[in-house]
């Protein structure tokens, strides 16, 4: 396979401002703190400046109130060590520097009374950058919201007037790193040192970015490769007081048969724990009767012992009221059931996101043309082999396994495939991530049903299919790990469901726990670092 065709493990070639927050938090969960990242960012910035301006030169560092300013403060310390004459110009009052990391950068600089000069720009219109050889723009980064307000607007104008080398930290201040829009004043940089990975907006405005350099902040590639607490904290929408009933998501679970009564009930319970407004459970009579002890689940009784084509019209009507559907758990392998699954998937509105699990995957194996981009398929290895007609590479050869799954995703409309195993592979053919949260006892029956319910719940909340599958795998695994801690080998899928709220309520609080610390015996893969260079040279 061509290298270009291989999806890189991780979040792709560029990262959004949301990805930045996720990577920070996942990095912290893996033992590399935000403070370390900021320190590395500052050092990388100082080193890039040192490549371009001889030491002894005069450098002004303009510092904003957030993480971007924190990077600038760290850079100032490194530049002082390297022999530059450093003046730091603070646009915010020191007490307005709130993040603990940026604060500690400021405190370290404050006592450097021999080598660094710090001024607070009380009147931003009077900032003069005359006589400097270089200006470091650490005003605003990925946290920019809307056009820069005073005093940052004036500070940006001052940077642009300066007759010096202009180096922007992460993004030219004023540029929206996601869209490339500049809704107000914006820095015109000679060099932009962007951190960890390029942001998409940078490629849209090479005129503002100048030379683009991608610098390491020491975040482990694993912070992107493995789904982690940052994904839960920043990608899962939360209700506000203004949310109306139904807005937080409605899910339709279709599953169960005379022989498998519990599976779809576990899915429904897990979906509910993900914070949904409504959960419909459409299932044969015996399943609906068993679910009656959970009054919060809305039953849709399908008369008879198993799903069959005469139920499809009714299911389509209920599906209209749901934001996402999960189908397959415990449905059984009756020919009529398989036919009903195919008919339903063919007739569902194309915009409706669907999780296809278990017995519904078997139905799909004879009609793979029904697979589409907003589907999440959740096969384990044998189901994958049956569905796509080829076994995936073993878990130990993780890169080959990812490539096998990604290839099938590409062949099937970039649907999301969640290939379950001791380490889960999640890919839409463009991106690929892994989940290692879990516990050996998760081989117990029903944990896969919980996973399907979680994935559907996240889809219903508007999370895009790739991230919904990633987060479902992590939340399910982390809840399983917590259940295992308490019950050991005796844990059941219901113990897992009972711990979903712990993972969702305080995902970052769990970070200190050992959920991501298991080292897996996987064949090593090479991480491809993002390339340096001018955006136009990269044809982007
Ligand atoms: N994982 C990463 O990539 C890392 C990011 N770091 C840095 O952190 C930055 C992000 O930090 P933050 O999220 O704190 O955001 P920023 O530092 O970009 O700015 C946020 C601050 O600016 C204010 N602000 C936002 N829009 C404004 C506007 N239109 N007018 C006036 N003020 C405005 C906000 O109130 C907030 O105080 C990145 O750009 C990067 O420089 C680094 O510390 C290292 C780690
Ligand atoms: K900046």
From TrEMBL:
<dbReference type="InterPro" id="IPR029056">
    <property type="entry name" value="Ribokinase-like"/>
</dbReference>
<dbReference type="GO" id="GO:0052855">
    <property type="term" value="F:ADP-dependent NAD(P)H-hydrate dehydratase activity"/>
</dbReference>
<keyword id="KW-0521">NADP</keyword>
<feature type="binding site">
    <location>
        <position position="263"/>
    </location>
    <ligand>
        <name>(6S)-NADPHX</name>
    </ligand>
</feature>
<keyword id="KW-0413">Isomerase</keyword>
<dbReference type="Pfam" id="PF01256">
    <property type="entry name" value="Carb_kinase"/>
</dbReference>
<dbReference type="InterPro" id="IPR004443">
    <property type="entry name" value="YjeF_N_dom"/>
</dbReference>
<comment type="function">
    <text>Catalyzes the epimerization of the S- and R-forms of NAD(P)HX, a damaged form of NAD(P)H that is a result of enzymatic or heat-dependent hydration. This is a prerequisite for the S-specific NAD(P)H-hydrate dehydratase to allow the repair of both epimers of NAD(P)HX.</text>
</comment>
<feature type="binding site">
    <location>
        <position position="449"/>
    </location>
    <ligand>
        <name>(6S)-NADPHX</name>
    </ligand>
</feature>
<keyword id="KW-0630">Potassium</keyword>
<feature type="binding site">
    <location>
        <position position="448"/>
    </location>
    <ligand>
        <name>AMP</name>
    </ligand>
</feature>
<keyword id="KW-0520">NAD</keyword>
<feature type="domain" description="YjeF N-terminal">
    <location>
        <begin position="15"/>
        <end position="225"/>
    </location>
</feature>
<keyword id="KW-0456">Lyase</keyword>
<comment type="subunit">
    <text>Homotetramer.</text>
</comment>
<comment type="similarity">
    <text>In the N-terminal section; belongs to the NnrE/AIBP family.</text>
</comment>
<feature type="binding site">
    <location>
        <position position="68"/>
    </location>
    <ligand>
        <name>K(+)</name>
    </ligand>
</feature>
<keyword id="KW-0511">Multifunctional enzyme</keyword>
<keyword id="KW-0547">Nucleotide-binding</keyword>
<dbReference type="InterPro" id="IPR000631">
    <property type="entry name" value="CARKD"/>
</dbReference>
<dbReference type="GO" id="GO:0052856">
    <property type="term" value="F:NAD(P)HX epimerase activity"/>
</dbReference>
<dbReference type="GO" id="GO:0046872">
    <property type="term" value="F:metal ion binding"/>
</dbReference>
<protein>
    <recommendedName>
        <fullName>Bifunctional NAD(P)H-hydrate repair enzyme</fullName>
        <ecNumber>4.2.1.136</ecNumber>
        <ecNumber>5.1.99.6</ecNumber>
    </recommendedName>
</protein>
<comment type="function">
    <text>Bifunctional enzyme that catalyzes the epimerization of the S- and R-forms of NAD(P)HX and the dehydration of the S-form of NAD(P)HX at the expense of ADP, which is converted to AMP. This allows the repair of both epimers of NAD(P)HX, a damaged form of NAD(P)H that is a result of enzymatic or heat-dependent hydration.</text>
</comment>
<dbReference type="Pfam" id="PF03853">
    <property type="entry name" value="YjeF_N"/>
</dbReference>
<feature type="binding site">
    <location>
        <position position="152"/>
    </location>
    <ligand>
        <name>(6S)-NADPHX</name>
    </ligand>
</feature>
<dbReference type="GO" id="GO:0046496">
    <property type="term" value="P:nicotinamide nucleotide metabolic process"/>
</dbReference>
<feature type="binding site">
    <location>
        <position position="137"/>
    </location>
    <ligand>
        <name>K(+)</name>
    </ligand>
</feature>
<dbReference type="GO" id="GO:0005524">
    <property type="term" value="F:ATP binding"/>
</dbReference>
<dbReference type="InterPro" id="IPR030677">
    <property type="entry name" value="Nnr"/>
</dbReference>
<dbReference type="InterPro" id="IPR036652">
    <property type="entry name" value="YjeF_N_dom_sf"/>
</dbReference>
<keyword id="KW-0067">ATP-binding</keyword>
<feature type="domain" description="YjeF C-terminal">
    <location>
        <begin position="228"/>
        <end position="507"/>
    </location>
</feature>
<dbReference type="GO" id="GO:0110051">
    <property type="term" value="P:metabolite repair"/>
</dbReference>
<feature type="binding site">
    <location>
        <begin position="141"/>
        <end position="147"/>
    </location>
    <ligand>
        <name>(6S)-NADPHX</name>
    </ligand>
</feature>
<feature type="binding site">
    <location>
        <position position="170"/>
    </location>
    <ligand>
        <name>(6S)-NADPHX</name>
    </ligand>
</feature>
<feature type="binding site">
    <location>
        <begin position="67"/>
        <end position="71"/>
    </location>
    <ligand>
        <name>(6S)-NADPHX</name>
    </ligand>
</feature>
<comment type="similarity">
    <text>Belongs to the NnrD/CARKD family.</text>
</comment>
<feature type="binding site">
    <location>
        <position position="330"/>
    </location>
    <ligand>
        <name>(6S)-NADPHX</name>
    </ligand>
</feature>
<keyword id="KW-0479">Metal-binding</keyword>
<feature type="binding site">
    <location>
        <position position="173"/>
    </location>
    <ligand>
        <name>K(+)</name>
    </ligand>
</feature>
<feature type="binding site">
    <location>
        <position position="380"/>
    </location>
    <ligand>
        <name>(6S)-NADPHX</name>
    </ligand>
</feature>
